[in-house]
Amino acid sequence: MKKTNESGRSMSEMLAVLAIMGVLSIGTIAGFRHMMNKQKINDIIQTINLNSIQILSNLTHQSFTTPDAMDQFLKSYSAKSGGYNISFKAPRDTDREFTGTEFVAEITDQKGDRIKGSMCRKILTTMVKVNGVSDIDFTVRNEPMEDGTTEDVTMRLSGKAVDLNALCGKDVL
Description:
Layout: H1 11-59, H2 67-74, E1 79-81, E2 84-89, E3 104-108, H3 117-131, E4 137-144, E5 150-156, H4 164-168
Antiparallel strand pairs: 1-2, 2-3, 4-5
Helix pairs in contact: 1-3
């Protein structure tokens, strides 16, 4: 009788290799999505910062008596960034007198809806941590951070307290 040496891999070995490749692929895709979201957030914040600097420098030469007149001026500073629309508007706070020197940024998605949920939260918390934003006012207790920890986040917006759920809406998963 002739002996044959069989070489090759068994079915269970091949399935184990495929399972490991699948897990690595899923981890890579999740990491890539995380990096893309982080880049979108950074692009949005950078656009807001650059346009805000331009607006502030040009506001010194302007004088507005109504929010509508200021809105016309701010319209030219609208931009697209990270797949979102960024526009600037005069504040419409009935409790405060219109000064003609303050403005707010509004971020909307492609449909024109204000951003909600985790993207809104990430933009606001990143602005606090990175830029030290001082003209938004709200405190959120135990806000989940990207590194898995929680922190109290405090910002200032016209001296009013607002929570992130009211500002960004609750996440729908």
